[in-house]
């Protein structure tokens, strides 16, 4: 393929708003083009990478007998209204009307669509299990698109759905998909972690997330050097609280002017922050109704809202407004507490609160706190649980210290159970002729995010460094001076030999200076560069490995053999 025939608008400088190295380099190397905020065009080089990723996915899906199909992006709203996600999905859902004023959406995910198809097509357990998948654009109205294609309004996703007649069938497919995902991420050359995760808006239970460690990752991963890894949203640590044994003292109300934070209240009261109780006030939407929730937390521990919402089985959890706090509790945030709170407010407390005595907490009177408040005597708690964010260095469930890293979510698998089949009426007759809800699983890979994650992990100051398995071309042939007949003739001959041997070759036939060609070659990031220069008349060319920078001169007649050896060595090294 001649480089002059490819749309590849390289730039010397990255866009001023590009923070992530993947964003910077893919724009500079001419892989992607921004059409509008969060909406990108994938130019020819990126398209070739995506096609290779998709092929790897298809090969691994074939191994587990998953079958590819395609559903529409434009969907009627009725199914989403029936599944109750039309409102609960939030402002990220694109909503529109057609010319007949029918409510429509642009699909951000397709559980409802696939469930409807199975409901209307499959009626007996004998037709199950089925595993269906598609590779398709999804659309979500992201409030803050950022990091190039890492978080956009339109993105490419592989989503798969399994349909089985029993739990054992779901478990089998889930395990097969977990192996397939590991194979996919291994083959595309990613460093990744398999972590426990929250199912979020998908619903269901049983969930694993595949995350690629990267500085620009929007998720925090808590992990150990052992087997434990989890998204910070659900990460756990071993409970190490020790019951305090001091005698309970009389509760008293104390003025704490200007004390709005735990540290300020602790200083005002002359107490350690660990003895001050933080009271966070929320509104939770449960079964379509909003209810007030107070969450009690020790000292400077942080409330984990995902854990709280999961405990409540809430569709949505949000911080109460100052007006709501004043109306229901008589004070503003910073002075809130559980003493005297009525039964209309559910009070949850982290398990570490249970071991404290003589606590300080807000008095529901602006500028005042109570000292020596004690559980049961002075205030009630409706339920205790693990409602806090873990902290780095705490012991994980496997007994090893927790470490934190940032990560890019690249894949997620869920055991949905009957969350959608029950709601949408997807049933089959079982072996006894009785109707039973189809049991479902959902399995996604963010392909455009995967492209970004690979670029993020495989780039240096000069540009991109693509793994061999997904590079847009295998070899970059560069005749230093296209005006030299011997260089062009040898470059063309070597290109034909390489292509006959099965390699994909990009030939830089442009009328550019050698320095420009070499800089663009490093920027584009193909695995191997072959330079045809001054020694072309002697039949000598230079090979350069993009990843290591290693160079060697070889006889042109031995080029194909040498490239085969080098690529095999690179593949073996990456597997190690």
Provide a brief overview of the structure.
The protein is α+β, with helices and mostly antiparallel strands. It has 14 helices and 31 strands.
How would you characterize the overall build of this protein?
- This protein is of the alpha+beta class.
- The protein folds into three domains: 15-212 and 407-456, BirA Bifunctional Protein, domain 2 (2-Layer Sandwich); 252-385, YbaK/aminoacyl-tRNA synthetase-associated domain (YbaK protein, Alpha-Beta Complex), CATH 3.90.960.10; 473-575, Anticodon-binding domain (Rossmann fold, 3-Layer(aba) Sandwich), CATH 3.40.50.800.
- 27% of the residues lie in helices and 29% in strands.
- The strands form eight sheets. Strands 3, 7, 8, 9, 10, 11, 12, 21 and 24 form a nine-stranded mixed β-sheet that branches.
- Helix 1 crosses helix 11 (447-457) and helix 2 packs antiparallel against helix 6.
- The model has no long low-confidence stretch (mean pLDDT 94).
- Homodimer.
- One of its GO terms (molecular function) is transferase activity.
Overall 3D shape: globular
Q: Which residue ranges are poorly predicted, with pLDDT under 50 across at least 5 consecutive positions?
A: none
For the report, how would you describe the main beta sheet? 9 strands, mixed
What Rg do the Cα atoms give? Answer: 29 Å
The CATH homologous superfamily of the largest domain = Bira Bifunctional Protein, Domain 2
Compute the number of structural domains.
3
In DSSP terms, counting alpha (H) and pi (I) runs of 4 or more, how many helices?
A: 14
CATH topology of the largest domain: BirA Bifunctional Protein, domain 2
Class inferred from helices and paired strands: alpha+beta
Count of DSSP strands: 31
Distance between the termini: 32 Å
**Assembly status:** single chain
